[in-house]
Amino acid sequence: MHFSSTLIYALVAIALHAVDAINVKVPAGDQRCFFEVLEKGDNIRVSFQVAEGGHLDVDFSLTDPNKVLVEDTRKSSSDTYNHEVKLTGKHVYCFSNSFSTVTEKQVSFNIQVIKPHKEEDTQKKNLLEVEIRDLAIGIEDIKNEQEYTIARERTHRDTAESTNSRVVWWSLFQSAILFIVCVFQITYLKRFFEVKRVV
Question: Key word Signal present in the record (predicted)?
Answer without folding.
Answer: yes
